[in-house]
Design a protein that fits this description.
With 89 residues, this protein is mainly alpha-helical. It contains 3 helices and no strands. The chain has helices at residues 2-14, 36-50, 65-75.
Length: 89
């Protein structure tokens, strides 16, 4: 899950201009001021990155970043879950 979490953090800082100091595993997307449209865009970005269909979760904005990364990783096809520095980009 570490690679998924790390990529979520990278996307939040690079694409959504979220302050890196505000990002913590227990922070929520809503708490980082991402509205529902931004959450959808985040899912689309992750789908493209991992080349896998992800089902959007209507409650994703209220999940912690740790929980969000777990939801994303659980939706990746078996054997595709990234495992470190060689994770897909």
């Amino acid at each position: 899950m570490e690679a998924v979490y790390d990529h979520v953090v990278t996307v939040l800082t690079d694409k959504f201009d979220v302050d890196a100091g505000a990002i913590r595993p227990e922070a929520t997307l809503a708490g980082l001021d991402l509205d529902s449209l931004a959450v959808v865009e985040l899912f689309v970005t992750l789908q493209e990155h991992f080349n896998a269909p992800l089902e959007e979760d209507d409650s994703a904005a209220e999940l912690t970043l740790r929980q969000f990364a777990q939801v994303v990783e659980a939706q990746l096809p078996t054997g595709q879950a990234p495992t470190g520095p060689g994770a897909p980009r």
